[in-house]
């Protein structure tokens, strides 16, 4: 117990060599729960015992049972010779009697300064490296023409990368849109003119009348194809059966592909992208296999008719594109902080193609997902979103010259009194958002803690079967959710054949294209009942769908719930104004025969309210919805609904759905928006605590290779403070465990005379030693001489702010210049959880 207590004191573990975790990163995501226990299985997954094991998360700091580091103390054979065999950076001279010390790290070693899986990057170090690189390129640009060209190309590389990301993201979004539209219609029938045409495209060249445009002879339902006719009970049952079979086939194929090839392709991906953008590393989450499988399975999942959308996963797809394309440019490939700037821009491009809203995409990246968003990233995000939207517009996936299926234009202005129902829709959106978050998190927690999580294929099968069986009888749940939203946003015209537009027409009062408010016909009342049933189904089925092991976005289902509620309220207001136009509230602005109420506008406001209640977006949400409608005059209703929704939802629970899933999964995410209001000090949080063993440190010039190897062998910390001596405890710097391991192993292999009794020193000059001593090893180049320090009396409010704004991994605590302890990001997260009356041990990789 004492050892375990000691092993929880210092630092954050900085991973092992990248090749060891490559296979692990592709393992199913559920294996990460809990991560601290799952790491124990690494010995059975190709991880050699007898070598340095530093595979713990730098946030988790759990001792790995059985992962002993059996260093060869008596001989000089390096245990990592297999991994280090390719290194050739040793540039020391020959060993002789007069020169027995060596700094073979004058050239950087491969692996030194890099990060391993499930580690947090050091933002300060990465930004410092980039500044050094930029200074070097600038100084060299004055020496030759070639160096000047290199400097210009380096400056231009960021814009070129944004161009590639926009082109690739837009192309993939167009492919996904076209494929999903076709496969959705495939559940109901097939086109005889060409099976690759969806229903709408199939009937484009048909000679049928406008009112019968959906009944063209080229399109055959499955009953017409199999039994020759589409009428009657047997034909209905056959179509019902084919609908369910296709839905099950699509969803099962999706979950099997995810489970077998890319476990990270499930879900929306936005919680993980937020965590990655905050500095955490999840190898493989933005890799090529994830991109390929997510693109394919997203089409399958959307086509299956499940209550999910493709907009959230498109952000993940765009970020995968950004991460993969980063490897084309050294500046972004070798710097994790620079790469995260690119990923922020890629997220903007993802929302741009998802909603056809380039400006909304930039604001979404700024407001919702990005952790570090400098002005330069804002410009590049704007450019990437522009290119992505232009590419999607060129592909024209919907054949209507629009970027989204549910683009609408309203012509009638809204009245001030309508703000009351708009605010009511905002209240409904906030209540729905809070209800959904609590219910979905409770269900996902049950999935994690019970046997349900062990059967993802069965879960998808059951939910798909229930969804398909309930959806087919109701035409508003049978159609795709995007088509449903398009139908609800639609402003009824003379030629509309939808049941939502079956009003009692009085053409004597029709003036031009503007239709007055009319009495609802039987079709409208039927549609209202069907929409009410669809609302109940969407509200509950989405709770169980979001979080399954298939790609699943939340934007479209949330918007559908709000749009249904908004359309119901809009029709109610319209009929109220028609039958009671002499009431005081209508008399001033809504006379008989006038077009006063636009139900489609209410649907749009309701969609914004519900999406805001779930995600807690405000500015970006309003801009996205405004770009969808193309009308400036509806910004105020959208703002009123979005703010009311956020206030209502925040009154019930402060977290949006993405933050709630981050906390549920135990990701090390330090929320920058929340205030820390408690009066604790650094000494209350630092380790070691009172009655704990002393802090593990390395001295600057008095420890042997064997001593350092023993410390690495017996601890699992990510790094170690370097002090002048154990007696003085005066701080010199901080050295990372991973850099120590690689440096010592390379020295054993590449440098003659380095044995277990060789002295390691971190000073400029070697300590005086007798001539009989073996060669010394100089490791000053891997020492961080400027670690961030605070005093023991620093308020935790300031410490938390430092961690948030500088992106620190750890912070050393001193008293009168002497080292006292260390505070890691994990310690900060645990402390915040403890003050919030949460279990601190469940914060990381829950």
Side-by-side strand order of the widest sheet: 1-9-8-5
Helix content: 40-55%
How many H/I helices? 32
Q: Give me the secondary-structure category.
A: mainly alpha
Main pleated sheet: 4 strands, mixed
N→C terminal distance: 22 Å
Q: Whole-number average pLDDT?
A: 80
Please compute the radius of gyration using only Cα atoms: 31 Å
Low-confidence stretches: 1-102, 509-513
Describe this entry's structure for a reader:
With 846 residues, the chain is mainly α. It has 32 helices and twelve strands. Strand 6 and strand 7 form a beta hairpin. Helix 6 (145-186) packs parallel to helix 14 and helix 17 runs parallel beside helix 27 (657-665). The longest helix has 42 residues, at 145-186. InterPro entries: CBS_dom, CBS_dom_sf, Cl-channel_core, Cl_channel-5, ClC. It is a multi-pass membrane protein. Pfam families: CBS (PF00571), Voltage_CLC (PF00654). It comes from Anser brachyrhynchus (Pink-footed goose).
């Amino acid at each position: 117990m004492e050892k375990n207590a000691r092993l929880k004191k210092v630092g954050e573990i900085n991973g092992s060599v990248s090749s060891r975790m490559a296979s692990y990163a592709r393992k199913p995501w559920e294996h990460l729960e809990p991560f601290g226990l799952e790491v124990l299985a690494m010995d059975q997954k190709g991880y050699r015992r007898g070598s340095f094991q530093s595979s713990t998360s730098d946030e988790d700091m759990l001792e790995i049972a059985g992962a002993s580091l059996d260093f060869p103390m008596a001989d000089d054979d390096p245990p990592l010779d297999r991994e280090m065999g390719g290194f050739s950076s040793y540039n020391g001279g020959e060993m002789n009697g007069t020169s027995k010390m060596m700094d073979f790290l004058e050239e950087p070693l491969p692996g030194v300064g890099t990060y391993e899986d499930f580690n947090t990057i050091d933002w300060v170090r990465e930004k410092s490296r980039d500044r050094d690189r930029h200074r070097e390129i600038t100084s060299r640009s004055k020496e030759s023409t070639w160096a000047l060209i290199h400097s210009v190309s380096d400056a231009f590389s960021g814009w070129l990368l944004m161009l590639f990301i926009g082109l690739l993201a837009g192309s993939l979004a167009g492919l996904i849109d076209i494929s999903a539209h076709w496969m959705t219609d495939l559940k109901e029938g097939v086109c005889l003119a060409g099976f690759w045409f969806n229903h709408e495209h199939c009937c484009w060249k048909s000679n049928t009348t406008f009112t019968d445009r959906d009944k063209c002879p080229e399109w055959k339902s499955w009953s017409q194809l199999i039994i020759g006719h589409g009428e009657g009970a047997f034909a209905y049952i056959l179509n019902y059966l084919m609908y369910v079979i296709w839905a099950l086939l699509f969803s099962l194929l999706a979950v099997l592909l995810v489970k077998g090839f890319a476990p990270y392709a499930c879900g929306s991906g936005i919680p993980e992208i937020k965590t990655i953008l905050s500095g955490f590393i999840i190898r493989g989450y933005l890799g090529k296999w994830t991109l390929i499988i997510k693109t394919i399975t997203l089409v399958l999942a959307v086509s299956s008719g499940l209550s999910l959308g493709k907009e959230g996963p498109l952000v993940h797809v765009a970020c995968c594109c950004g991460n993969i394309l980063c490897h084309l440019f050294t500046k972004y490939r070798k710097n994790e902080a620079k790469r995260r700037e690119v990923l922020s821009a890629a997220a903007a491009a993802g929302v741009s193609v998802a909603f056809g809203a380039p400006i909304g995409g930039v604001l979404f990246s700024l407001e919702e997902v990005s952790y570090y968003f400098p002005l330069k990233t804002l410009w590049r995000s704007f450019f990437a979103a522009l290119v992505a939207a232009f590419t999607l517009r060129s592909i024209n996936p919907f054949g209507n010259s629009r970027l989204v299926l549910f683009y609408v234009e309203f012509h009638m202005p809204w009245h001030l009194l309508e703000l009351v129902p708009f605010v009511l829709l905002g209240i409904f959106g906030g209540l729905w958002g809070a209800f959904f978050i609590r219910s979905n998190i409770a269900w996902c927690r049950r999935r994690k803690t019970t046997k349900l999580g062990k059967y993802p294929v069965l879960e998808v099968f059951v939910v798909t079967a229930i969804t398909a069986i309930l959806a087919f009888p109701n035409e508003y749940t049978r159609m795709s959710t995007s088509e449903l939203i398009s139908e609800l946003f639609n402003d009824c015209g003379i030629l509309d054949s939808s049941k939502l537009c079956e009003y009692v027409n009085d053409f004597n009062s029709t003036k031009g294209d503007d239709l007055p408010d009319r009495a609802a016909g039987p079709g409208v009342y039927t549609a209202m009942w069907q929409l009410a049933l669809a609302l109940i189904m969407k509200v509950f089925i989405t709770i169980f769908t979001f979080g399954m092991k298939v790609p699943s976005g939340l934007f479209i289902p949330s918007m559908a719930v709000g749009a249904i509620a908004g359309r119901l309220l809009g029709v109610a207001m319209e009929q109220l104004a028609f039958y009671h136009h002499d009431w005081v509230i209508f008399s001033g602005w809504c006379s008989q025969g006038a077009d006063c109420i636009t139900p489609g506008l209410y649907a749009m406001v309701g969609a914004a309210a519900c999406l805001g209640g779930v995600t807690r977006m405000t500015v970006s949400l309003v801009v996205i919805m405004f770009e969808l409608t193309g009308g400036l005059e509806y910004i105020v209703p959208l703002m009123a609904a979005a703010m009311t929704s956020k206030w209502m939802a925040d009154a019930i629970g402060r977290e949006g759905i993405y933050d709630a899933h981050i906390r549920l999964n135990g990701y090390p995410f330090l929320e920058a928006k929340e205030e820390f209001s408690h009066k604790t000090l650094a000494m209350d949080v630092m380790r070691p605590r009172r009655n704990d063993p002393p802090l593990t440190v390395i001295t600057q010039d008095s420890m042997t290779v064997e001593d350092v190897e023993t410390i690495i062998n017996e601890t699992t910390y990510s790094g170690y403070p370097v002090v002048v001596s154990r007696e003085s405890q005066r701080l010199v710097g901080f050295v990372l465990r991973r850099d120590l391991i690689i440096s010592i192993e390379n020295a054993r292999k590449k440098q003659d005379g380095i044995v277990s009794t060789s002295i390691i020193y971190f000073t400029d000059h070697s300590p005086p030693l007798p001539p009989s001593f073996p060669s010394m090893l100089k490791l000053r180049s891997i020492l961080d001489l400027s670690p961030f320090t605070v005093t023991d009396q620093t308020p935790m409010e300031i410490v938390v702010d430092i961690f948030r704004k500088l992106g620190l991994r750890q912070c050393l605590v001193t008293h009168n210049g002497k080292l006292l302890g260390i505070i890691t990001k994990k310690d900060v997260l645990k402390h915040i959880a403890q003050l919030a009356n949460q279990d601190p041990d469940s914060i990381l990789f829950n």
